[in-house]
Structure formats: structure tokens, C-alpha cells
Amino acid sequence: MSGLKGYEIIRAIGSGGFSRVFLVRSKNNGKFYAMKAISKAFILKNKKLKLVLNEKNIMVKINHPFLAKLYHSFETVNYFMLIMDYYPGG
Length: 90
Prior knowledge:
By secondary structure, the protein is α+β, with helices and mostly antiparallel strands.
């Protein structure tokens, strides 16, 4: 399963300027992840596409024990999603 159907949303765990972060559980392996949902409308309205793509591209390339790892990314009609490590307590 891929995309949003591959995850069970547990609860919201944070929000930022144009995104919300959810605790999700993978239906494939049962592991917990943080899912960052970034509003496409906000991205386009505020010309933030380059910023979001840079964030994703950096996360794809980086591998460091002190930084959240990006496992998967996908789009829905209204959101761009990033599936990352979940760190309880922040």
C-alpha cells in the first residue's frame, strides 16, 4: 500500500506556518512515523514551491543520527506529504 491509504492517522502532534504533523502508523509494517502534511494551496499562493522541494531533496540526501530520516513522500489532492522518523517528546 502506498500513499495515504498506507497509513493510519493516530493524532495531530504539531503545526507550523503552512503544515501540520501527524503521528501515523504504517499499515504495512506497524511502525510509527511522523507525517508532515503541507498545504498545496498555501505553497502556490505564497510561492513556496522551491522551499518545499529543497526541504524534500535535502532530506532525501541526508543521513545523520541527529536528523529525522525521510522514508516516503507523496501527494494528495490538497497536500504534499512527507513520512519521517517519529521522535516521541520532540
